[in-house]
Amino acid sequence: MIVRLLILWLLGFAAAPAAQDNPLRLSARAGYDGLYEDVLAVPVVVSAANDGPPVEGELQVVAATGGDELIFSAPLSLPTGADKRVPLIVYLPAFTDEVTVRLVVGGETAATTSSNQLRNVGEDTLLYGVITPDMGGLAFLETIPGGRADAAVAFLTPDDLPEVSSAWNALDVLVLDDTDTSRLTAGQRSALRAWVESGGQLVVTGGPGGPTTAAGVADLLPVTVDGVTTLPDLPALSDHAGLSFDDPGPFVVTTSRPTAEGETVIGQDGLPLLARRSLGRGRVIFLALDPKLAPLAGWAGGAALWGELAAGVLPLPPWAASIQNSYSAMQSVAYIPGLRLPSTGQLLFFLLLYALIIGPINYLILRRFKRRELAWVTIPILILVFSAATFLTGFSTRGKAVTLNGMTVAFGSVRAERLRAQTVLGLYSPRRAEHDVGLPYDSSAFPFQEGFGALLGSGNLAAIERAANVTLRGVRTDTGQMAAFIVESHPPRPAIDAAATLVDYDRAVEVIVRNGTAETLEDAVILYGTAQTGVGDLAPGAQTAVRLELSAMLPQPTPDPLFPSAIIIPDPLLNDPSLILGTVDYFSDPQAYPRWQLIQARIGGDTPNPAALPDPGEVVTLGGWLAGSPLEVTAGAPAERLGATLLLLEIPVQEGSGQ
C-alpha cells in the first residue's frame, strides 16, 4: 500500500510541471464587474499571452443553453511573447454564474479558463457603472435606486467600456470620477454617445481631477471646463439640499462655463456646481465637486443630490420594450411572399381533377379505343405524372433564392443622432445549406427558436464570430427552413423631424411632423399617454400638423383575444393596433400580419407598467413604418431582402405661449 501511494505521489509530482509548462495563458473578465442582465449583451474581455511558438487559433466563449453550447468566437494570432486583450460580446441565459473560455488551435483545445463569478440583475435594478480610483468612496450608490426597486454598482476601468454600443444597454448610469478619459478610444466615445442618446445617464465629476476627467468627453458636457479653484463656502449647494454642511470649507471646485446646450441646475456666483444637458433620451450631468471629498462625502445632502440624479433615468415606455416572445418574433419573419400554401379551394380542385382523370376520363378514353386492358399501364403512368407535378409544384413554391427578412423596432428621440434598435432577422433557404451571415461590427446577435419558453437558444450555427465585422458562421438550414436571430444595434435616425408645443392653455398639444426621407412613412400615429391618434401615410417631403386633446386620453379595452376584455394594457399599440397597421383585418392582411406579430413580440410574462408611460404634457411619440430594415446584412450569396421598420420617435413637448 505504501509503495502504491509513493508511486502515485511520484506520478503527480512529475505531472505538475507539465501542467505548468503550457506557454499559453488565458484569463477572462465577464459582465460589468460580474453583473449582467437577462437577454442583454454582455461584454467579455479575454487576456491571452503566449510564451511559446507562434499560434494561430480561435478564442471561444461558451454559453450553455439547455445542454447545448452557444459559441461566441474571435480569431486570435499570438506571436511569441504576445500579450493581447480580446473583447467579445456575448449573451447569457438566466442563472449563469460563469462562462468558459477556450483557445482552439487546429481543431483542438490548447488552453482553457473560467471567467469571474457572474450575477444576474433584474431589469428593475438601477445599474451604476463607476470608474474611480477609490471604490469605497462611491460604494454608497448601491443604496440609491432612484425610482427602481434596487440598485447595484459595477466598478470598472476605462478598458472595460466596450466599443460596441449595444453592449452598453444593461447600464443605466455611468459615473466618471477622477479618471483620465483621454484614454477612451474613438469607438468607446461613439458607443458612449449612442448609449446616452438612447436613455443612459452620464455623470462626470469635478474637484481636483475635474479637468482630466472631462478631457475625453468634452463634446458631451453641458459646460466648458476651465480649471480648478478653491471656494470658502458653497451656500447655493447647502440651500438646494436644505441642509448645512458637516465640514467647513474651503472646497475644491472645477471651474467651467455653460455651453449653449447646457443648463445650470445649481450655480454659485455664476459658477456651475451642477449642470445638465439633454442628449436624445438621456442626460449628461456635470458635478463640479469630487463626491469623495467635502462637502459631499458623508453629507446627507450629498445622498439626496445623488437621489435626484438617479430619479432622472427614464424607463422604457411599454411600446419600446425589448423583444421577449419568441413565437411572435418568429411569426413576424416567417411570412415570405410567394411561399404561401395553396388555398383549400385549390387543393380541392387538384384532388377533384386527379380523381376525374385517373378514374372516369381514363376509363372513357380507353373504352372509346376499345383498349380497356391498358388501364394496367395508364393508371400507374397517370399516378407518376401527377406525383411529379405535385413535387415540382411544391419545389417551386419554396422559392429559388435565399431570403433575408429583417423586422426592426427602432426607438429613440427625434433629437438623437442614433436610435436603439432590435431586429428580428430571419434567414430562409429553399434547400439544405450552410450560410455565413455578415452583420456590422457595431451590432450584437443571438439565435432563438420558435416557442413559448426562453428567448435565448443555441440555434443551428457553428459560432457567432467577431472580427472586422460580426459573422453568424455556419448557419444551417434544412429545406424550406427559417433560421432566426435577434440583432441589437444603434442605427442612425431617419431624417424625420418633429416638434410638439403646448397650446390652448396647456389643454392640448400641437405636433408638426415632416418626413425628410426618400420613403413614405406608412400608417403613422401619435402616441400620448394611453391614447393615440392616426396621422396616416406621410409621403417624402410632406409635412402635417396634428392637435392632441390632453383631456381625451381614455384607455379602451383591447379587442385582441390575447388579453381578457376587462384588462387595460397601458400600450395603445396593443389596445387598438388598427391605426398603426392601417387595417382592422390585420390577421388576414399579408402586410399587416407580420407587423402585428412584431408588435406582440415585445410582450413578456408581465403586464407593462403604467408608471413607465411618459407624461403627454412632456413627451409624445411618433410611430410609423418604413420599408426595409436599417440593418446591413449579407448572406455570402445573392439574397432577396425583405422587412420593415417600426419607427418610434419621442418628441419633447415645449411650453407654448398661451393660446
UniProtKB/TrEMBL annotation:
Coiled coil: none annotated. PANTHER family: BLL2462 PROTEIN. Residues 168-286 form the DUF7408 domain. InterPro entries: Class_I_gatase-like, DUF7408. Keywords: Membrane, Signal, Transmembrane, Transmembrane helix. The chain crosses the membrane at residues 347-366, 373-395. The lineage of its organism: Bacteria, Bacillati, Chloroflexota, Ardenticatenia, Candidatus Promineifilales. SUPFAM superfamilies: Class I glutamine amidotransferase-like. It comes from the Bacteria. Residues 1-18 form the signal peptide. This is DUF7408 domain-containing protein.
